[in-house]
Amino acid sequence: MPKFSVLVILSLMFLTAVLGLSHGAGTYVNITEPYNATILHNGSIYLGKSGPGQTFSITISSLTTNSTGTVFTRGWNEFKVVNYPSGWIVKNSALYRSTLTVDITPSPNAQNGTYKLGLSAINTGNYSKIGSLNFIAYVNITPNVFRLNVSPENVYGSPGEPKSISIRINNTGVSDSPFVINVSGIQGVSLQPETVIALHHTSEIFKYAIFAKTPGEYGPVVSVDSLESPLVNKSVRIRFDVKPSLLADYYAIGQGSPIFPIIYEPSYVLMYIIGLISKL
Questions:
Q1: Residues 85-105: pLDDT tens digits?
Q2: What is the pTM of this model?
């Protein structure tokens, strides 16, 4: 083998070894959010789904080891997003924490698809001689990041009587973005929106009270919208059947001056008392 070729090969081997040391051969990054995973230098990971405009976070532990197994509890001192799509907003981690978090907000106009992020865990000043660890993270941008279920689908009540419905938000995305619950379609009633948080990869049930002032059959619409992205939303229509109740009628008797023969008044007094007791 020509001498030049041997020298080239030896030089490449030496360069590879140096690069391995400079990148902290044997080091790793422990990802703790949005889920637990361990990644090596130049590795890659798929994070999951996020809606356009929905902020999500990646958290790592500062702990790592070097190629000899020496443990550094604060090996990583900084965590940065070094490459990301145009129009996205990133916030890099604080320094010298036991956990390091970057926050990433996709563009609210991001089209559906899978996007690539470049990240770097850094040993500041390389004082532990482990350099930095670089890896790639992929995230799928889509408005379909949660499932919605409302129960019961058929609600029965009396005028003015609040009835509780259960709203289940199954957040299948990686964002902890707040959601706003709205119920519309009950004539004569304006129900107030309620802001809730369903954490990523969790299913949460939220109670919401509805009521109607007058009898009737209503078809209210339960809507859930992401506070950060108008593109992320779902709605369900339910049935709300409101009928007068006998106890409510009894109570109403005592609110006016019934015009009945005097012989019937004792019985109406009794009905009013029954209605009044039902309100206690």
A1: 999 999 999 999 999 999 999
A2: 0.77
